């Protein structure tokens, strides 16, 4: 796939990106800027993490004539449907301020549900991996995982060495756990039957959103979009299977899950079950097909979704599984 292209859950033809209809009056960009001038630059494909609304089309999830998604001032409660995996608006606190965030990255499954898309470009890498080994971890037999007590997800500012939380809106608060109400967190909570679920979604990268507006910074970039859930999971095996089944069955935004989920056992997934599956979707702007691995772990108190990317491309199965497992070791803490 090419950098800055929509991926899973990109809109379906004849719709444009984010489900808008072609030929509608031009609307401002997602953050209030004019669509032809993201960050003051000439019009171009959106950079990593910043899908822009194409000229002449309303933003994702809107009817013609509405303000662009994410444009309303802080404090307003009106939100469109968010991309699966996209950080949810902060709920409560902060003087009632809320930030509507549009995110897109090849890494974004955010992407993993209705409305999300890959904005990472450069092509996919679906040839790597060894058919699902994912490293040298181990699990206690499927469906018979040892319950090691309550754990939560701590979305640290920095993980995996040099990966930092990407700041998509300057000055916006860091992602905090919230009850899942939309997108991927909602799908995972419902599918897994997690009790008292809380979720947090972030993009971790070794590049800032501003840096990735410069295409020369794509080479050497690394990122992982992460959806972390915690609560009580009675049956991790069934929960994992049901999440993948619902991802496959949800056709509302044109995502196609390829093949079947593959069991992997990276070291970071000790004490958990993990599977990965590749997904593809047509980029409505280019008619090209984008692909990315989606890796999900499940244990008795947490479920995590990871979608890695490197150099603006999708990553092999083993790489995707190992990175997601390594992230689990850092963000899953007793609590």
Automatic annotation (TrEMBL):
Composition-biased stretches, type Gly residues, lie in: 129-140
Asked if the record carries the keyword Nucleotide-binding, the reply is no
Task: Give the keywords, sorted.
Answer: Membrane, Transmembrane, Transmembrane helix
Which source organism?
A: Streptomyces mesophilus
Q: Does the keyword Membrane apply?
A: yes
Annotated region (Disordered), positions in chain: 1-97, 126-151
Spell out the Low complexity composition-biased ranges.
1-51, 58-85
What is this organism's lineage? Answer: Bacteria, Bacillati, Actinomycetota, Actinomycetes, Kitasatosporales
Q: Which residues cross the membrane?
A: 99-120
Full protein name: Flagellar basal body-associated protein FliL
């Amino acid at each position: 796939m090419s950098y800055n292209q929509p991926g899973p859950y990109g809109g379906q033809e004849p719709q444009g990106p984010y489900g808008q209809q072609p030929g509608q009056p031009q609307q401002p960009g997602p953050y209030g800027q004019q669509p032809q001038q993201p960050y003051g630059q000439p019009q171009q494909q959106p950079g990593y993490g910043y899908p822009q609304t194409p000229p002449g089309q309303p933003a994702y999830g809107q009817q013609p004539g509405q303000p662009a998604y994410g444009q309303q001032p802080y404090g307003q409660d009106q939100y469109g449907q968010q991309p699966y995996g996209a950080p949810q608006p902060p709920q409560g606190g902060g003087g009632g301020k809320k930030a509507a965030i549009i995110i897109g990255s090849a890494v974004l499954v955010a992407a993993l549900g209705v409305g999300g898309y890959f904005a990472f470009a450069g092509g996919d890498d679906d040839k790597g991996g060894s058919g699902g080994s994912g490293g040298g971890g181990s699990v206690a037999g499927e469906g018979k995982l040892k319950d090691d007590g309550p754990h939560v997800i701590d979305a640290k500012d920095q993980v995996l060495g040099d990966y930092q939380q990407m700041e998509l809106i300057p000055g916006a608060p860091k992602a905090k756990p919230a009850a899942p109400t939309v997108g991927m967190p909602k799908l995972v909570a419902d599918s897994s039957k997690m009790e008292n679920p809380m979720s947090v979604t972030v993009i971790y990268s070794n590049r800032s959103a501003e840096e990735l507006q410069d295409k020369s910074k794509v080479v050497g970039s690394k990122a992982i979009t992460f959806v972390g859930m915690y609560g009580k999971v009675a049956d991790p095996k069934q929960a994992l299977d049901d999440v993948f089944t619902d991802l496959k069955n949800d056709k509302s935004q044109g995502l196609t899950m390829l093949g079947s989920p593959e069991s992997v056992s990276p070291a970071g997934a000790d004490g958990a079950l993990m599977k990965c599956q590749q997904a593809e979707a047509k980029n409505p702007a280019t008619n090209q097909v984008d692909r990315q691995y989606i890796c999900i772990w499940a244990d008795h108190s947490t479920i995590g979704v990871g979608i890695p990317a490197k150099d603006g491309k999708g990553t092999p199965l083993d790489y995707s599984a190992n990175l997601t497992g390594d992230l689990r070791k850092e963000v899953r803490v007793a609590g």
